[in-house]
Amino acid sequence: MSTGGPDLFVICKSCGSEVSPYITECPYCGNRLRKRAPKLDRDQRVSERKPRRQPPPLLTRLRRDEIPGIRGDTRPYATIAIVLASLVACVLWRTSLGSEDLIVLGRPGSGWWRLFTAAFTYDNVGYAFVTLLTIAVFGWLLERRHGPLVVLALFLIGGVGGLAANVALHPEAIELGASGAALAMACAWAVPDLRNLRRGGDVEGDLIGAAALALAVALMPLADVNASWIADAVGVLAGFAIGVPLALLTDR
User: Fold this and answer.
1) Domains defined for the chain, CATH in brackets
2) Cβ(72)–Cβ(61) under 8 Å?
3) d(CA 150, CA 10)
4) Distance (Å, whole) CA 2 – CA 84
5) Is residue 1 pLDDT above 90, yes or no?
6) What is the DSSP letter of 46?
7) Which of 226, 217, 216 is nearest to 99 (CA)?
C-alpha cells in the first residue's frame, strides 16, 4: 500500500483477493466487504468514521425589537381576558343570574358601570360568535404588534364608547355587545396594509378575510335588534384614529 495517497486495495477476508477499497462486495467471491461505500477524508484516504450528526438548529423566542413592528413572543393576555369575560357574561345572561344588571336599559344614570358589563354581554349566539371571533383574531394580532394597552384602549373606546354614543342618541335603547370594539380592532390592524396598498407596496395580511369578518360584524344590526349602527360607526372611527398614529410610529 502507498503511504502518501489513498489505499490501492484491500484484502477480501473470504477469498484473499486484492480488491478496490471503493466497492462493497468482492467481485471474485461475492463476499460482503462493508454495508456502504466508504467515505474519503481530506487526504483521500478511506475513512471508516461515521460523520457526526449535527444537532437541529434551535429557534429561540422572538426578542423585543428583533423584527421591526413585531413585539417579542408573548401570550395575548388582554385579548384572552376580553373573550373569557364575554363568555362568562353570556353564561350569566343565559342563566338569568343578574341579567338585568349586565346590560343598559335606557339611560344608565348612576349605573354607568353597566356600559362596561354590557360590552361583554350578548343575547344572540350568532352575534356573540362573529364579534368574539373578530376580537380574538385581530386583538391577538394587534397585541403581538403593539402590546395589550392598545387592545384595551380599542375595546374601551370602540366597544364601551360605542354603546355610550348610542344610548346618548337613543335613550330608550337596550345596549349590549361589543361590535364597535371588534370593528375598531379590525380597522386598526388593517391600517398598515391599507397604507402599503395605497403606495403600491406589498400587502402582508389577508385584507379580504379581514374585510369579510368586519362586514359580518357591521351587519349584525340586521340580525339582532340590540346591535347598533352607531356603535359600529364609533368603532370604525376609533380603529382608524388609533391605527393611523400607530402605523406612523412603526414606520419611523
Assistant:
1) 1-47 (no CATH), 77-251 (1.20.1540.10)
2) yes
3) 74
4) 77
5) no
6) E
7) 226
C-alpha 174/C-alpha 90 separation (Å) is: 16
Q: Return the C-alpha cell found at 148.
A: 395589550
Amino acid at site 169: L
- What is the reported pLDDT for 4? 46
Structure confidence at residue 186 (pLDDT): 94
**β-strand partners of 19:** 10
Query: Percentage helix, strand, coil, to 5, in the chain?
Result: 50, 5, 45
CA distance 232 to 200: 29
pLDDT of residue 109: 66
Q: Rounded distance, CA 159 to CA 82, Å? A: 11
Q: Measured between alpha carbons, how far is 177 from 28 in angstroms, rounded to an integer?
A: 86
CA distance 79 to 210: 17
Q: Which residue has the higher pLDDT, 41 or 5?
A: 41
Nearest CA among 166, 163, 185 for reference residue 119: 163
- Return d(Cα 137, Cα 142) in angstroms, integer: 9
- What percentage of the chain has pLDDT greater than the value 70? 72
Q: Which residues contact 90 (CB under 8 A, 6 or more apart)?
A: 121, 122, 128
**Could you give the CA distance from residue 147 to residue 2 in angstroms, rounded to a whole number?**
69
The answer to whether 122 and 90 have CB atoms below 8 angstroms apart is: yes
pTM of the model: 0.67
Q: How big is the chain by its Cα radius of gyration, in Å?
A: 33
pLDDT tens track for 76-95: 899 999 999 999 888 887 77
Give me 149's grid cell: 394597552
